[in-house]
Design a protein that fits this description.
The chain is an alpha/beta fold and about 270 residues long. The protein has nine helices and eight strands. Helix content is about 40%, strand content about 15%.
Length: about 270
């Protein structure tokens, strides 16, 4: 059953190779489930370019982000910044990122991550576009860097929030939006989110799948494979609404409205 109003998945890695064989079907299934608008995450310069090209196939449905994930921070060089600036300026791009710090995996050194994060925050400030943020196990360094740029930024979202109460309250105090994924459906790791999600003001709440990652563990019947898809976003919204004690339609309407505004979707998409 389609939710009304329709939903926006603010974080979808549609350029991921796991979608190469059935990308069009994935999009069609999402739209049939009520997920009519999707934001395609840019995590490298090349994946950002692919995301922009995909948005051009249907700009009424898609937006992109333009950035370099902290896992790839060591690959970003200063002479890459003109290209990133150009990508960020594309009208198909609604936010800068995915950028930030990931001290959990440490696929790039802390120094490289912090340098790439600062570069991207500077470009975001220049562009006038908000930032799509990633942070894992680097909260204090993340906050220190972000605060240097925040007065010049057009907002930000803590993408795929999985942190604790201190992190959430710090982000809310900065005025960040909070992206909630199917992590909240994980009885092993996401139980704390079921409490914390109640603290997020409705006008700062956004929803996302982070597909193909983070398949909700409580889906019934369980899918035959582990690949997450945007068609599962309505399930995540139902879980969030239940945790907040609010009607599904209220959460759906608010998160759609918030996403349309945050990512500057065409005005015709506003609920």
């Amino acid at each position: 059953m389609t939710l009304s109003p329709t939903l926006v998945d603010i974080g979808l890695n549609l350029a991921h190779d796991s979608f190469d064989h059935d990308r069009s079907e994935v999009v069609a299934n999402a739209m049939a489930a009520g997920v009519r608008h999707m934001v395609i995450t840019g995590s490298t310069l090349d994946s950002t370019q692919r995301a922009i090209e995909f948005v051009r196939t249907d700009p009424q449905v898609f937006r992109a982000t333009a950035g370099v994930h902290p896992h790839h921070a060591g690959e970003l060089r200063q002479d890459d910044l003109p290209r990133l600036r150009q990508l960020l300026a594309a009208p198909e791009v609604g936010a800068a990122g995915e950028c930030g710090l990931d001290y959990f995996r440490n696929f790039s050194s802390h120094a490289d991550q912090e340098r790439a994060f600062r570069w991207q925050l500077e470009l975001a400030a220049e562009s006038g576009k908000p930032v799509f943020l990633h942070q894992r196990d680097g909260h204090d360094a993340f906050m220190a860097i972000l605060k240097d740029y925040l007065p010049r930024l057009a907002g930000g979202v803590a993408h795929c929030f999985t942190g604790d109460g201190r992190e959430l309250r710090d982000y809310l105090e900065l005025g960040l939006s909070i992206g909630i994924t199917g992590w909240i459906c994980d009885e092993r790791r996401g139980q704390h989110l079921r409490e914390l999600v109640r603290e997020i003001p409705l006008d700062q709440l956004l929803v996302e799948t982070d597909a193909p990652y983070l398949l909700p563990r409580d889906l019934q019947p369980k899918p035959a494979h582990r690949r997450n898809e945007p068609k599962y976003l309505p399930h995540i919204v139902k879980v969030i609404a239940a945790c907040r004690g609010e009607p599904v339609a209220t959460v759906a309407a608010a998160t759609t409205r918030n996403a349309v505004k945050f990512f500057s979707f065409p005005g015709s998409l506003a609920p």
